Amino acid sequence: MSFTAVPVRLSTLDPNFESQFAARLHWAADTDAAIEHRVADILADVQKRGDAAVLAYTERFDGLAAGQVSELELTQSDFKTAFDALPVAQKAALEAAARRVRSYHEAQKKAGGESWSYRDEDGTLLGQKVTPLDRVGIYVPGGKAAYPSSLIMNAVPAHVAGVQEIIMVVPTPVRGSVATGGSGATTATRGERNELVLAAAYVAGVTRAFTIGGAQAVAALAYGTETVPKVDKITGPGNAYVASAKKRVFGTVGIDMIAGPSEILVLADGSTPAEWVAMDLFSQAEHDELAQSILLCPDAAYIEEVQRAIDRLLPTMPRAAIIAKSLNDRGALIHTRSMEEACAISNRIAPEHLEISSDDPHRWEPLLKHAGAIFLGAYTSESLGDYCAGPNHVLPTSGTARFSSPLGVYDFQKRSSLIEVSQAGAQSLGVIAAEMAYGEGLQAHARAAELRLDTVPPMRGGA
Amino acid sequence: MSFTAVPVRLSTLDPNFESQFAARLHWAADTDAAIEHRVADILADVQKRGDAAVLAYTERFDGLAAGQVSELELTQSDFKTAFDALPVAQKAALEAAARRVRSYHEAQKKAGGESWSYRDEDGTLLGQKVTPLDRVGIYVPGGKAAYPSSLIMNAVPAHVAGVQEIIMVVPTPVRGSVATGGSGATTATRGERNELVLAAAYVAGVTRAFTIGGAQAVAALAYGTETVPKVDKITGPGNAYVASAKKRVFGTVGIDMIAGPSEILVLADGSTPAEWVAMDLFSQAEHDELAQSILLCPDAAYIEEVQRAIDRLLPTMPRAAIIAKSLNDRGALIHTRSMEEACAISNRIAPEHLEISSDDPHRWEPLLKHAGAIFLGAYTSESLGDYCAGPNHVLPTSGTARFSSPLGVYDFQKRSSLIEVSQAGAQSLGVIAAEMAYGEGLQAHARAAELRLDTVPPMRGGA
């Protein structure tokens, strides 16, 4: 079967550009009331019945029966066995990737993840103490989206932050089991596990792991059960049930962003071999039919060249069907007036992945305000960043780069303000605080400040 | 009318301590399905009808009728008029507080809010670019919880981060209007505004402001309307409708944590005047009947002294009724075996405010893992931190200090990874990335890496 991929061709010169552009960009997460309802029930049930509920849902949704949750626990020796069984090249790649990711995140911690303090002129100490979370949960999807690289990207920053316990949940549904409401994966067979994920758990240093998934796994991590320990934060991607469950337990535990479909935006000035750019567009499109690949370029001839490269390379790709559907439905090749205009459009999109495919990338980088990750220059293919350059591949999607950041060490740390007011400081601060507190009608606040004054004034408006 | 406040007396020596302690700590946010439902409807309606819906809900819930949303906009001159009308001492206090809060947050930005990068041995550049959000919304409640200090604590860090537009929403409901589903405040009269909040908007540098509230205000900020600009993040406290709306728009925009009732935990070694500690407990209790004030102390005689100070001081307090109810229902004076044990219990609570009321606070501080803010030494009353010491008073409540942090400059910034792989780097990274990508069945990823190799190998498993 042969496929063709012809991303829509837009031009900023076209008077209808704005509406065409808006239509192509549009994507909205389904908020499915039926899913929300079912998830609320599952959460409440796991909170109430603990292990018994987890076992029931795992049997019902994943077709996996067990007498006790402890039977669903993987061991460190499962991880090691999986790692030892890998071909040498794969072992080396996993270890090299983990090493580079660790080293980048160590630099990140040093750049902003350390405690700090100073004393002001009154001798008052002010600062922040930065400490790791105690225990985190990482959700790893079963089935087609089970990526060992994802596990590394979630677990390594937690490790670098100093998290002591990393609990992984990964469903292993039975082939053909009823997946609705479960982990959404139907391709694994009973007992068959994703060995690369287990090997990655070994390399990344996962503490404990359970073969459970779906909303029931999120609930077990958020509330704790007799067997599954309660965590402080849950990260990692999942299907609509997992996303809904995470959103619902937010507040009881921390969560990472809810991810939408993956996106790449390539800003090209025409200096990169067209095949490289075409393959970068493919590498996003092959994830998912909803993934979005966009090229912005001021050079019309180069856009033609990229389309020809697409035509030439597509038939060689094993995932040609997914790539073609993604590019045809959601892709776009956009001709712009200039690179400056291309940068401005990129800022409106706030893409997850942003390649500056230019021989002068540092000229354009300062113009780019919103993006999950910025890849500079022709050699920086997104796939290098996805696996092993070092920065995290868990990035804000669907325009959320306007207000959120790559997963990082900071997601596994929290801060406590430190304040030590000197006796001298209490004199000047006490007067200010009391004035404001009386203004807000909070007399005990005012009085707590005034009692620390060397000369305590009479209380205003006392009872 | 006279009140007595007798917080429950617990001891870690008591064999029933654990269950008594758990019972006293227990607090759970109501998840009211009726509120969730109504909020979902309001959000959908504002998203669809924009200004018209905002006007309709503002009239229905706040009793405030207007022909256009622009009539509900406050101006910079409203802010300045309010500020100019304040007594000199209040002006000075507001300005001093804002100045100190600004200076602390500038130090915070320097300590971790700046871009960074490095080059590895292959010449590959790795780092993060830190940039401000473009536009944020700050929710300011109407009625009894309308605190100018809150506005300063929300707006100043946004300013320091470099946010260009700060949009405030603050309901001004008409006295006696139907508050259900609205802003939850029924004490303001039509046209009457909280002048201190407006003055704080002047000092804190709010860009635009609208007198709207409730879920409709959250919706207007999250989706934008013809008049209210769409923001990137919404922060600030609100009632159950506001909290539910914020939770629901999370993902479309960023939000801060949903706050529960306020809490203070005092670790005392008996060296602080008992009246100071009693007043600090009051200053939390006076916020709200659900607020929680806890004292942990290894000295039984000192606990008696604090109770006597409570008895003596309570009758002088204008908010004695609220203080008494809060202390009686949710307060606790806990006798511990030692300061070490007191620290361990504090870590289980993960309090919002934690005072180390000791003459040797730096001995205990390292033992404390989880807290929103730590106040060291007898002179550091929480109220100094609430208003003017400098650190933020928006802190994680209800144990969420286990995984979250004070509001800070970082909440108004986001990060973009920076990656520039050199030609040399592309050779070593390309081999690793390709190996992992083939392992995950993502051949376009593998191929995008391999095309950058000086010698491009044949594709594995090509179609």
Automatic annotation (TrEMBL), chains A, B:
InterPro entries: Ald_DH/histidinol_DH, Histidinol_DH_CS, Histidinol_DH_monofunct, Hstdl_DH
Active site: E352, H353
Source species, domain of life: Bacteria
GO terms of molecular function: histidinol dehydrogenase activity
Entry keywords, A to Z: Amino-acid biosynthesis, Histidine biosynthesis, Metal-binding, NAD, Oxidoreductase, Zinc
Cofactor(s) needed for function: Zn(2+)
EC numbers on record: 1.1.1.23
Major enzyme class: oxidoreductase
Pathway: Amino-acid biosynthesis; L-histidine biosynthesis; L-histidine from 5-phospho-alpha-D-ribose 1-diphosphate: step 9/9
Residues involved in substrate binding: S262, Q284, H287, H353, D386, E440, H445
CDD domains: Histidinol_dh
Reactions catalysed according to its record: L-histidinol + 2 NAD(+) + H2O = L-histidine + 2 NADH + 3 H(+)
Keyword Amino-acid biosynthesis: yes
Binding site for NAD(+): Y139, Q216, N239
Chain positions recorded as Zn(2+) binding sites: Q284, H287, D386, H445
Cofactor binding mode and count: Binds 1 zinc ion per subunit.
Repressor in keyword set: no
Biological role: Catalyzes the sequential NAD-dependent oxidations of L-histidinol to L-histidinaldehyde and then to L-histidine.
Recorded family membership: Belongs to the histidinol dehydrogenase family.
Protein name (record): Histidinol dehydrogenase
Source organism: Hydrogenophaga palleronii
